[in-house]
């Protein structure tokens, strides 16, 4: 994405463009080093000098729940990213995992790309 597009788009649009490019990017304050997710214009600490950095992709399951429907079951997990922020996502390849399990992010391509997590091999 070129600098002109970044300057005119909001944080959500920029994040979605990165996903469409196959990149999992999160924000980080240049001054404080604080990582931020979900994309926003200001960090929880009040920092407004947010830039985009590639996420490492590593994380730990903080919480997970299974939603059961007639069409099939799926999970919703809270993942603590290695950088610090917590995000909501789906863990694929396992319906449930123990709290504290290590997971690895990847981008699920499609009309609306999204970040999903796979369990890490021990």
TrEMBL record:
Pfam (any one): OB_ChsH2_C
Residues covered by the ChsH2 C-terminal OB-fold domain: 52-107
InterPro entries: ChsH2_C (IPR002878), NA-bd_OB-fold (IPR012340), Thioester_dehydratase-like (IPR052513)
Protein name (database record): ChsH2 C-terminal OB-fold domain-containing protein
Protein's organism: Actibacterium naphthalenivorans
